[in-house]
UniProtKB/TrEMBL annotation:
Lineage: Bacteria, Bacillati, Bacillota, Clostridia, Eubacteriales
Native species: Desulfitobacterium dehalogenans
Protein name from the UniProt record: Glycosyltransferase family 4 protein
Keywords associated with the record: Transferase
Superkingdom per UniProt: Bacteria
GO MF, one annotated term: hexosyltransferase activity
Length: 336
């Protein structure tokens, strides 16, 4: 059981986090014998559950770090209370110290953990990946296309979390620039703390080419990708974004459409290496609008990007290959 909060103030989110920490203890107590426990952070406070589970089951835990929290929240200005910052930094270090191993999702996180004096031999690397069978090139879902009124549209699809760090305002400003092009349509699928603000911006600007769709189950998302002409991933400009690999990049490349990546750092380098998309600087809506039109008017380039992107993630970022590699890392550290 968790206290549900779609979005809200910091204290409400803490209540959401801690409700899971406490309710997870019931599941831990009922579970059988464990050899190894894996926990996901953030939320950082799941470390309390990890410590309890490790003690009850007499098993070590691996702390999978997908974001350097609270550091990222501080850089974005989301947490400013110095007492809270000091307390959470202490907790972070304590949970790291008690973990058997730490697993990082990006090279930036690996480097961040080393800066926090975590020994390299205690760090595993498990990047985001994609189920390349679920996410692949599909025929358009005509029923969904008709229900959304998207027949004949060049659909720009953003599918994923809508948080402050994603800087989706840039996409809305680009939509405003392209409002007189009746073929271009921006489709945002998902939820997050910034969605009410983004919807308010779209309403204030009276954008005729923007629609928001509620959060969808993972198995439904490929239906929306089937409607996409160009996939979109955006990030705001901030220091830690250099070590970010948005998870949406991988299904976007696997689904067989070109990707526009607005951002810097590791995510941008992956898109460049894949050959499956175009990388743009953050917070430049004019450049984004211009790039959308260039891709729209060059279907042969879009086809080339789509094929390269799909081939790249199948080879390098399918979950099967990533998990085999991760288990190999774990076995080598156990033998050393």
């Amino acid at each position: 059981w968790i206290y549900p909060v779609r979005r809200g103030r910091f204290w409400l989110r803490l209540l959401n986090y801690f409700s899971f920490v406490f309710s997870s203890l019931y599941g831990i107590a009922r579970s059988g014998k464990q050899d190894l426990i894996i926990v996901e952070s953030p939320p950082l406070f799941i470390g309390f559950s990890a410590l309890t589970a490790s003690w009850l089951k007499k098993a070590p835990y691996i702390f999978n770090v997908s974001d350097l929290w609270p550091e990222s929240a501080v850089q974005l200005g989301l947490v400013t209370n110095k007492t809270i910052i000091r307390a959470t930094e202490w907790l972070e270090g304590y949970f790291y110290k008690k973990a058997y191993k730490l697993s990082a999702q990006t090279q930036g996180i690996v480097e961040g953990l080393r800066r926090k004096n975590v020994p390299s031999e205690d760090i595993l690397f498990l990047p985001n990946g994609v189920d390349t069978e679920l996410f692949q090139r599909r025929d358009k879902d005509r029923e969904l296309e008709k229900s959304l009124g998207l027949e004949g549209k060049t659909v720009i699809l953003y599918a994923g979390t809508m948080g402050y760090a994603h800087g989706i305002e840039t996409a809305l400003e680009a939509a405003d620039i392209l409002r007189n092009d009746e073929e271009v349509f921006f489709l945002f699928v998902g939820d997050g703390s910034e969605r009410p603000k983004l919807e308010a911006i779209a309403q204030e600007k009276k954008l005729p080419n923007v629609r928001f769709i509620d959060f969808q189950p993972l198995e439904v998302i490929p239906r929306y990708y089937s409607l996409s002409s160009i996939n979109l991933s955006t990030l705001r400009r901030y220091k830690l974004s250099e070590g970010v690999r948005p998870s949406k990049v991988f299904p976007a490349l696997a689904s067989g459409q070109p990707l526009i990546y607005v951002g810097e750092g590791e995510g941008a380098e992956i898109v460049k290496e894949s050959g499956g998309g175009v990388v743009l600087e953050p917070e430049n809506p004019e450049l984004l609008a211009r790039t959308i039109l260039e891709l729209k008017n060059n279907p042969s380039l879009c086809q080339e990007l789509a094929l390269k992107g799909r081939a790249y993630v199948v080879e390098h970022y399918s979950w099967d290959s990533l998990i085999r590699n991760w288990l190999g890392q774990l076995e080598r550290t156990e033998l050393s």
